[in-house]
């Protein structure tokens, strides 16, 4: 399925927004203009009525009505039930109130009482009935009505004054035809729509191109990175998110470059470690086969030792892969943590006593721990082997157990030459190998610290190292304590 590029999606989104905006303008400025106009007029009329009702007992009622009629351009009349006028005010002669007949006022008042004391209607003389023959208005006709009579809004409300008299408030507001205004706005919108569409097309194209261009460049660079070009650099585009994405990808490329270099170094190291014992095994086996005098116990022991060395290397690589991939599962159970550490120290001390190594273990209290005993023992063993590799000429190593009510910390302290500060953040990495020279006192693979990191992390613990170049190094790990 072919996907649409981000540039065209932005372009289409901007154009859709512009079209919707124009549609809203047409609806509000043309289609619904008459409705909005009438709604505004009705609100003005009701607001005027509310002001008069609040001041119905005021001595300056006539002045207030005059002011409201003038400012709102409305006809205001307050009449009693007998149709006599309490107060009135108007500015024009073509209001429907001005030419309203007596029987018309009676009908309006009756209708207002029947509808709960308030009515609102669109009033037009074309809809009025002729006066009945019995009406006094038939004999005494009103003055000629204006020929330019306009439709209007007639609002009627029954209110009560301080004398408990009911009076009717009539407010008449003209409805000015908006056809001419609508036609004017329609013509204007033709021009506005044309100009807006042209401007929107241009602006949408420019914006889409400016936003999409840096993303397209990053995409091309990402494809190069996927092909193994780790020296590629990602350029931002002036936008915060794109700059952050470029920085993240640049950091990723740098880290991948480091990983690739370390992977190649690991392969070279493992190849070297594999080649050495295999060469020795092959050489001694051939000698034992071809030379009758070489078939002895010493040569057999050498072959067995080199075979163990190969087995250890392969097992460490497999253990690390299982731990980091999550295949290896923890077997949690309660075990004597302090006793296990002491036994491991004792075994290694016995193994290395002929070479002059001294390993001592001190602890504040013997504790039990709920964890995977085999893996915790493996982590400690790897740290102890690492200390043996790098310890100083005195060949002394100190193991210290410190406990709190909630945690237990194990420290392995050597007397070596410390670790450079630049190497500290990377010594736990899978492929990292420090340039610090060391003696391989016992069999090892160089993957021990990575295994420690994976085991302690899987137990929810913490680990670290304190080291200063030229001084001792102190490796440690901390586990949550659980007494059984």
Strand order of the largest sheet: 2-1-5-4-3
Number of helices: 11
Gyration radius, in Å: 49 Å
- How much helical structure, as a percent, in the residues? 40-55%
Output the structural class. Answer: alpha+beta
Number of strands: 12
Query: Biggest sheet, in brief?
Result: 5 strands, antiparallel
Average the pLDDT over all residues and give the rounded result.
79
Give the overall silhouette: elongated
Q: Report, as a whole number of angstroms, the end-to-end distance.
A: 60 Å
Strand content: 15-25%
Low-confidence stretches: 125-131, 137-148, 437-444
- Give me the strand/helix succession: HHHEEHEHEEHHHEHEEHEEHEE
Oligomerization state of this entry? single chain
Output the keywords.
484 residues, alpha+beta, five-stranded antiparallel beta sheet, five-stranded mixed beta sheet, 52% helix, elongated
Task: Describe the protein's topology.
Blueprint: H1 6-31, H2 33-54, H3 61-72, E1 74-79, E2 85-89, H4 102-114, E3 118-123, H5 136-139, E4 152-160, E5 166-174, H6 179-226, H7 240-290, H8 297-325, E6 333-336, H9 337-352, E7 358-363, E8 368-371, H10 373-390, E9 396-403, E10 407-413, H11 448-458, E11 462-467, E12 473-480
Parallel strand pairs: 7-9
Antiparallel strand pairs: 1-2, 1-5, 3-4, 4-5, 6-8, 9-10, 10-12, 11-12
